[in-house]
Design goal:
By secondary structure, the chain is an alpha/beta fold. The protein has 16 helices and five strands. The relative contact order is 0.10.
């Protein structure tokens, strides 16, 4: 649960995002700087950490981010682009790689459509259907245009405000009304505010409702696009509860909130993109049916974890990945779930 009182965040590099967006550099350089700021915030880097990684002084780094560097900034911008490329490679090893399936492209296209036309939208899809990874990827590709936060499990207006304020580098020691002011000074009609897993508000009753009302107010006052991602239980609440239904219709003052539903089944085409990404050959009919059944039952999460584990095992053995390694990954994971520690983790 988020705390309501925090230490000062003067070292938080996200405070430079507005200056980067309006700065004097080419758009590609702005995107690089915004990406590095987001990466630094995610990894708890201070401005000094950023400067050290870039090989410049903190003073120079600050001037570059503020757009006030008086000398030729081109060599530093090239170095920062190289740093971004290196960090991107390193980052791929931290989480499961992003695979741009047809479903993921649809999700990112919906995010772009919602941002560009300033719509309010709810995207409904089952758990582990790739919603979160797709909106994260969209945010990574558009760091200067997207504010992405995860809805707290225990939702309230203040906790949602804190997460949004933290994401844009605003002070989280501020009073709620001052946080609102900072957020509204940051958001523009060219931004997209994404609240991931908004269905958590259903568990917070009236406070959750007030949290959605707070988000609606931010959207209406700033003119930005708004995208909420949720599971089918949120859609059920919208359909079955007059209170939730009436409130959600107010997400846009000009028109009702649009609801977009992801397909109820993961296609073989998308699964093929995943197994080809991980280096697997075409499976036989029986194994393909098994993979498809696991995907429909548990989504992408289980499948990609098994494939990634199989790929690592094959790489360690110095051989191409095969479906035998996939079956071995299933057994290894099952043994661990059963409390049996395998020889090679």
């Amino acid at each position: 649960m988020d705390r309501i009182t925090y230490t000062k965040n003067d070292s938080d590099p996200r405070r430079f995002l507005p200056a980067v967006t309006s700065g004097p550099y080419p758009q590609e350089a702005k995107q690089t700087l915004a990406w590095l700021i987001s990466y630094s915030a995610e990894h708890n880097w201070t401005l000094g950490d950023m400067a050290a990684q870039a090989g410049v002084s903190a003073k120079t780094m600050r001037s570059i981010l503020k757009g006030t560097y008086e000398a030729n900034a081109e060599p530093h911008l090239l170095a920062l682009a190289a740093l971004r490329a290196r960090l991107t490679v390193d980052q791929a090893g931290e989480d499961l790689p992003f695979v741009e399936t047809k479903l993921a492209r649809y999700t990112m296209d919906l995010a772009e459509f919602t941002r560009r036309y300033h719509y309010a939208a709810v995207m409904i899809g089952p758990t582990q259907w790739g919603k979160t990874e797709a909106v994260k990827e969209y945010a990574r590709r558009h760091p200067d245009k997207v504010v992405l936060v995860r809805c707290p499990v225990s939702a309230s207006p203040t906790r949602l405000l804190y997460r949004i304020a933290k994401q844009i580098g605003a002070g989280t020691t501020l009073k709620p009304e001052d946080m609102i002011d900072r957020i509204l000074r940051y958001l523009t009609p060219d931004h997209l505010l994404i609240i991931d897993e908004i269905h958590h508000v259903l568990r917070s009753d009236k406070m959750g409702m007030k949290g959605v009302e707070q988000v609606r107010e931010l959207r209406d006052m700033s003119g930005c696009g708004l995208l909420l991602t949720a599971t089918p239980e949120f859609e059920a609440a919208m359909e079955e509860s007059p209170v939730w239904s009436d409130m959600l219709k107010q997400l846009s003052k000009r028109n009702a909130c649009r609801v977009y539903r992801l397909p109820s089944a993961i296609s073989t085409e998308d699964l093929r993109q995943v197994w080809e990404f991980y280096g697997f050959p075409e499976p036989d009919a029986g194994l393909r049916a098994s993979v498809e059944a696991a995907a429909q039952d548990s989504g992408y999460g289980v499948i990609t974890k098994r494939m990634n584990l199989a790929r690592i095992a094959a790489k360690n053995a110095g051989v191409p990945v095969t479906w035998d390694y996939y079956l071995g990954a299933i057994k290894k994971l099952q043994d661990m779930e059963d409390g049996n520690m395998p020889d090679d983790v």
